[in-house]
C-alpha cells in the first residue's frame, strides 16, 4: 500500500469515526497530518451504547447525519449553496434581426480559495468565482453567446453538453492563460445539461470546480412547479491525491443539513439533478418518506420510473419531481452510505 493509499484510508476512517459522534485524538491527528488542517469535531447530542450505537437525543440544529461544529464563511467564499439552489442566470437578453432570442454571458475562469468546512480551505478552479459555476438557463432555440476569459495560470475551456458545431465544443480549442474565446450556439435539446472544462487531466479540472448546470427549457415550458432547485453532486479532494475526502450537493458538505430547504406541503418540487462527481464511479439520490418521478436528462415529458432512489454515473443528470403530503423534516442524501456520512446529505423542511 502506498503512503497516499494509507493516508486516504486513515483519513476516511477518521472521518467515519467522527460520523459516529466524535473524532478520537488519533483519528483527528491522522486527518490533520494528511491535510495540514484541524478537523472540527462533528456535532451531535444523545448518548452511546457500548457498541457505539447512538441512543436518543437529536442535535439542536436538527441534524441527524454528522456535521461540523461552526459554519463555513459563505461571505468570504462569495457564494452560498442555499442561494445556488435557485440562482438561475438568464443572461443579458436581446433580440436578433431574425427574431431569435440572444442570451449573452461573460464567464471568467479564476483560481479561488474556498472554505469547504470550518477551518478547511481548498484551492478551487472556478467559473465566476463559485462552485458550481453559474446556472445558465434559457429556452430551446435561443442563441447562446458566451465570452469566456481565462484568468488562471492554466489552459481551460468550456465544454457544453448538447447539440452544437464542432468548433464550439470546447475540446480542441484550449484557451491559453490570459486568453479569451467566444462560444456561440443554439440551445438544444431541452433538458438539464452541464458544462465543464475539457482540458487534460480532465478529472482534475472538473474536480477542482470547473463545472456548472446548463438548463434548456422547452419552448412551451415545463408543467408549473411551485419550487425549482438545481443540485449538482460533487466530491472534494482536499489533499489532491485523486480520492475524495468529502461529498456534497452544490459543493459545501452538510450544508442542507444545517440549513434545511423549506418547501410547501403538497407543492410540486422540481429538482434539476446533475452528477459531476469525479474519482468515484457512481452517485445516487434518495428521498425519505416519499417517491418521485424521474426524467433522465429531462429530454422526455414521460418519467422513466416512480421511485425513491436513483443512480447516476459521472455526467448523468435528470429531473426529479415530487410532492410531500405531510409536514415535517425529511432527509435526502446519497444512498452510498460513505458519501452521506462524509457530507452528501440534507433536509427538506415541509411546512
Structural summary, described in words:
The structure is a single chain. With 351 residues, this protein is mainly β. The chain has three domains: 3-55, no CATH class; 74-217, Cupredoxins -  blue copper proteins (Immunoglobulin-like); 227-350, Cupredoxins -  blue copper proteins (Immunoglobulin-like). The protein is built from seven helices and 23 strands. The protein has helices spanning 3-19, 25-35, 74-77, 81-84, 202-207, 255-258, 337-341; strands spanning 47-48, 54-55, 88-89, 92-95, 101-117, 120-127, 135-139, 143-150, 159-160, 180-186, 191-196, 211-217, 227-236, 246-249, 261-263, 269-275, 282-287, 292-296, 305-307, 309-313, 317-322, 328-333, 345-350. The longest helix has 17 residues, at 3-19. The radius of gyration is 21 Å and the shape is globular.
Amino acid at each position: 500500500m502506498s503512503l497516499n493509499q494509507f493516508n486516504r484510508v486513515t483519513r476516511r476512517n477518521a472521518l467515519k469515526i467522527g460520523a459516529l459522534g466524535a473524532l478520537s485524538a488519533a483519528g483527528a491527528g491522522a486527518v490533520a497530518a494528511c491535510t495540514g488542517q484541524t478537523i472540527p469535531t462533528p456535532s451531535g447530542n444523545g448518548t452511546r451504547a457500548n457498541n457505539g450505537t447512538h441512543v436518543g437525543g437529536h442535535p439542536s440544529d436538527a441534524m441527524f447525519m454528522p456535521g461540523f461544529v461552526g459554519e463555513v464563511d459563505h461571505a468570504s467564499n462569495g457564494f452560498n449553496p442555499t442561494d445556488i439552489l435557485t440562482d438561475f442566470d438568464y443572461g443579458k437578453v436581446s433580440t436578433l434581426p431574425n427574431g431569435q432570442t440572444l442570451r449573452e454571458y461573460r464567464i471568467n475562469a479564476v483560481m479561488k480559495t474556498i472554505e469547504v468546512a470550518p477551518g478547511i480551505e481548498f484551492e478551487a478552479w472556478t467559473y465566476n468565482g463559485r462552485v458550481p459555476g453559474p446556472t445558465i438557463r434559457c429556452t430551446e432555440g435561443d442563441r447562446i453567446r458566451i465570452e469566456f476569459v481565462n484568468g488562471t495560470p492554466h489552459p481551460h475551456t468550456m465544454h457544453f453538453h448538447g447539440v452544437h458545431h464542432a468548433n464550439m465544443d470546447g475540446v480542441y480549442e484550449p484557451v491559453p492563460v490570459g486568453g479569451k474565446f467566444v462560444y456561440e450556439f443554439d440551445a438544444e435539446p431541452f433538458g438539464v445539461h452541464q458544462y465543464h472544462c475539457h482540458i487534460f487531466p480532465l478529472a482534475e479540472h472538473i474536480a477542482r470546480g470547473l463545472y456548472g448546470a446548463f438548463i434548456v427549457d422547452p419552448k412551451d415550458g415545463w408543467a408549473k412547479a411551485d419550487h425549482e432547485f438545481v443540485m449538482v453532486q460533487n466530491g472534494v479532494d482536499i489533499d489532491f491525491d485523486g480520492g475524495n475526502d468529502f461529498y456534497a450537493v452544490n459543493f459545501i458538505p452538510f450544508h442542507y443539513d444545517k440549513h434545511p430547504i423549506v418547501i410547501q406541503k403538497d407543492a410540486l418540487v422540481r429538482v434539476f439533478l446533475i452528477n459531476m462527481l469525479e474519482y468515484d464511479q457512481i452517485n445516487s439520490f434518495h428521498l425519505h418518506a416519499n417517491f418521485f418521478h424521474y426524467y433522465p436528462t429531462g429530454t422526455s415529458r414521460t418519467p422513466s420510473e416512480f421511485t425513491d432512489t436513483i443512480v447516476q454515473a459521472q455526467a448523468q443528470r435528470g429531473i426529479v419531481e415530487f410532492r410531500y403530503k405531510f409536514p415535517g423534516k425529511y432527509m435526502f442524501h446519497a444512498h452510498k452510505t460513505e458519501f452521506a456520512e462524509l457530507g452528501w446529505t440534507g433536509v427538506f423542511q415541509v411546512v
